[in-house]
Amino acid sequence: MDASKAYSIYNMYDTMKKVFILTSLLCMTVIGNAQMTLSLDSCRAMAIENNKELLIGSEEINAAHYKRKAAFTNYLPKISATAGYMRTQKEISLLSKSQKATISNMGTTVGGMIEQTGSALGQLSPDLAQQFGPIFTILGEKLGDTFNQVGQSLVDALRTDTRNMYAGAITLTQPLYMGGKIRAYNKITQYAEELARQQHNTGMQEVILSTDQVYWQVVSLSNKKKLAESYVALLEKLNHDVNLMVNEGVATKADGLSVMVKLNEAEMTLTKVEDGLSLSKMLLCQLCGIDLTTHITLEDESIEDIPLLEGGVVADLESAFANRPEIRSLELAHMMYKQKVNVERAEHLPSLAFVGSYLVSNPSVFNSFENKFRGMWNVGVMLQVPIWNWREGHYKVQAAKSEARIAQYKLEEAREKIELQVNQASFKVNEAAKKLAMANKNQEKADENLRYATLGFQEGVIPTSNVLEAQTAWLSAQSDKIDAQIDVKLTEVYLQRSMGTLR
């Protein structure tokens, strides 16, 4: 069964469980303000709904489900945005101070050179100097001013002004090959989700088992309370009859004292049973999430005879291995550790990814230096190849393989223990059925013995001690029958638990 199908079945079961709880609560018999009648199924359903460990398990299933979804996103491209701002004390300068001074004053330099040319011409020919000297002077001044402005403009244009820098990027990354790590991690999360469900099923079976144990303990104590009350009634009647006989002189005072001692013991036993029954009902209320002061009555408290299983029980190991959540949990753990080997191996294999991004900065250098946001896009592939790591990868892979073998050994050990558990549970079911059959026969004999002893006592042919012995034997037989009946029910529950069919 795949994970999605198992998850849908789990949701359907959870919905049916809630509907069943609501129906059970509506169908409860309410007596007075706080008394209700509960069945075994309603107790199980309320205990499952109230158990905090199961609620935690449900949340763990949800967490594993979302982790699986998160792992699947590693197949898909990821887009991220990055932005930054930095303020620096000094700006980056492409020109030195001397270069700036030279370029800014190159007009003065050129003008001086022109004036020197005019002076040199005057030395060669005074007539030419008189005619062209003013021209050289004016030309030197004009060109000097013009070149100075051009030089200053060039210096200003080469200023970077990087004291305030802004940068941003939007990047897309698509994994192409990661050594199988993504695929292995996805399988691990799938197994982890199913493992959480199996652990939840294990916890649910434990809750049901605990509830059944307390439920049948309450049924046992309730029947033993009725038995104790019947025994006290027998002894009270016997005590009344013996006192009349003592007054008539046909019985000794010792006979009366013997009956009184037995009556006191029976009353003390009844008190203990009542206390134990009250505590057991409080425990059942706590398991079911009911107020501890609620007076509850169980449907099976009036049980008298339990039908025996026909033909006995035969252990079905294949069914147990298929149904036990512990086996499935260990199988999943083993598969997870096998995938962990692939993850460790992938860490030391080449990885390849496609990368595309758009970069923007201010100042920008795409049109000289500008205090404007300008950007560009780029695409490429990134390959990472591990070369040498002193065999770290080999050691990690070997460690992961050892963990996988440990999980395999635990699975094999669990199979052996479950095989023994199923056989023991099957044997105990058959043994409990035999004990119940013998208890029924003993109870019939004890009833007949008590009837004869009572008639004989009334006819005066049987002493009081024999009647007390018959009543004690009757009490023991009835108690053994109750214990055998409860043992039959509990061994059936234990067998279902060992077979993984406890629901």
Describe the protein in words.
The chain has 503 residues and is of the alpha+beta class. It folds into 2 domains: 3-76 and 178-306 and 316-349 and 386-499, Outer membrane efflux proteins (OEP) (Up-down Bundle); 93-159, no CATH class. The protein is built from 12 helices and 6 strands. The strands form 2 sheets. Strands 2-3-5-6 form a 4-stranded antiparallel sheet, with no helix packed on it. The longest helix has 68 residues, at 181-248. 25% of the residues are buried. The model is unreliable at 1-13 and 15-33 (pLDDT under 50).
Structure at a glance:
With 503 residues, this protein is of the alpha+beta class. The protein is 70% helix and 11% strand.
